Amino acid sequence: MIRKILIPVEDELFVDAIADFVENLNSPSNDLTLRIMHADIPPESLTAWTKGDSELEPMRLVDSVRSALKKRIPDQSIETVVVDGTPKNAILDEARAWNADLILLGPHGQRGISKFILGSVAASVIPDAPCSVVMLKPLFQEKEKLDVKEVEKQGAA
């Protein structure tokens, strides 16, 4: 049974997808704890340089994600944590230390070189994860599929 879900975040773009996933688990909210985490990348690393503003307030980010989730799933137990380290190591270390049952990874709003470097996080986490990993589909891909179906429908009419 899934009781602890670790949710690493870099932005707030997939809050609705997280809420949809949790709601579809059909698990009583008192049996489930979500932990929203952010890896605060050391400023001396290359990935911090590509990330953008290294002065981004990580606690504000995880608190904002928590607040947005609470609006959708108000009775859900949601914790927040900010850890130092590169995303892969921070995610794996936190999953092990917290004894997570599931890591829920989502798409991020990265572009260009950031997407290339940070896009490999999921690929590097999955083989070494101490638990199952679920990768949420980017919302824009779902929308593109819906738009294609709508165009096909209109073309058939």
Describe this structure in words.
The chain is α/β, with parallel strands linked by helices. It has a single domain (4-156), classed as Rossmann fold (3-Layer(aba) Sandwich). It contains 7 helices and 5 strands, in the order βαβααβαβααβα. The protein has helices spanning 15-24, 46-51, 58-72, 87-98, 112-118, 120-125, 139-156; strands at 4-8, 33-40, 77-84, 102-105, 132-135. The protein has a 5-stranded parallel β-sheet with strand order 3-2-1-4-5, with helices on both faces.
CATH fold descriptor:
Rossmann fold
Supply Rg.
17 Å
What is the overall pLDDT average? 79
| Pattern of helices and strands | EHEHHEHEHHEH
| SS-based class | alpha/beta
Total domain modules = 1
Brief summary of the model shown:
With 157 residues, this protein is of the alpha/beta class. Helices cover 47% and strands 18% of the residues.
What are its keywords?
alpha/beta; about 160 residues; 5-stranded parallel β-sheet; Rossmann fold
In terms of topology, how is this protein built?
Blueprint: E1 4-8, H1 15-24, E2 33-40, H2 46-51, H3 58-72, E3 77-84, H4 87-98, E4 102-105, H5 112-118, H6 120-125, E5 132-135, H7 139-156
Parallel strand pairs: 1-2, 1-4, 2-3, 4-5
Helix pairs in contact: 1-3
